[in-house]
Amino acid sequence: MELRLAIFDLDGVIVDTAKYHYLAWKRLGEKIGIEFTEQDNERLKGVSRMRSLDILLEIGKQTRTDEEKEQLAAEKNAWYVEYITQMDSSEILPGVLPFLEELRTQGIKIALGSASKNAKTILERVSLSDCFDVIVDGNLVTKAKPDPEVFTLSASLLGIEAEQTVVFEDAQAGIEAALRAKMLTIGVGEQDTLHEAHYVIPGFEEFSVADLKKVLALR
Ligand code: B16
Ligand code: MG
Questions:
Q1: How does pLDDT run along the chain (219 residues), one tens digit per residue?
Q2: What is the dihedral of CA 150, 154, 156, 162, to 10 degrees?
Q3: 9 pocket-lining for ligand 1 (C-beta < 6 Å)
Q4: Is 52 a pocket residue for ligand 1 (Cβ < 6 Å)?
Q5: Which class in CATH covers the domain with range 5-16+89-218?
Q6: Domain made up of 18-84: CATH architecture
Q7: pTM of the model
Q8: In the chain, which segments carry CATH 3.40.50.1000?
Q9: 166: closest CA among 4, 15, 12?
Q10: CA–centroid distance, residue 86 to ligand 2 (Å)
């Protein structure tokens, strides 16, 4: 396989925005009388905003009309946006920048494949907007992960085949999406949670493009 494209998830791979999602969902939970823990927050990783709200309501055994849900999600998002606008490049996860630079030097295209509708704001805040050849986010796709749309669209916008693409993902839903897209799937995080991926790394600190090519050669 000739590697031509690397697609990166955002939250949990490039930056840790899960902590800000947690603060905002917790604040919404407090407002509507639902206790929301850090452990509960794990269930929201990689999941769309509306599905996240459904999970919060499920935890609190509450129901809401669609209209009320839109309003609650908007309220949570306003708080979340307040938090992320304080971000800067110090929040890029360790090893990510050198890895992106290495890909660029080797002529491998770089894409973002994120469920977040705030992806562009986050990339701007951390000064990474110019690093990506294409940005596919929650505003561009109609079907959320585990549907493969976010990844297949990234590759097709660049005219690159699935077999020439690698995906870096931290969430189970994202791993499933990448596997369904028939792309090489690298989990970023814990082996236990991400064991379905073709290969798992704890982060980018000790992972180079040469290591990636070794993984490819094993396939
Ligand atoms: P927003 P990713 C995902 O980002 C987050 O992991 C998930 O917790 C969040 O609900 C989702 O984006 C939607 O985010 O509310 O900003 O549209 O991991 O796909 O980069
Ligand atoms: Mg993620």
A1: 799 999 999 999 999 999 999 999 999 999 999 999 999 999 999 999 999 999 999 999 999 999 999 999 999 999 999 999 999 999 999 999 999 999 999 999 999 999 999 999 999 999 999 999 999 999 999 999 999 999 999 999 999 999 999 999 999 999 999 999 999 999 999 999 999 999 999 999 999 999 999 999 887
A2: -80
A3: yes
A4: yes
A5: alpha beta
A6: Orthogonal Bundle (1.10)
A7: 0.95
A8: 5-16+89-218
A9: 4
A10: 20
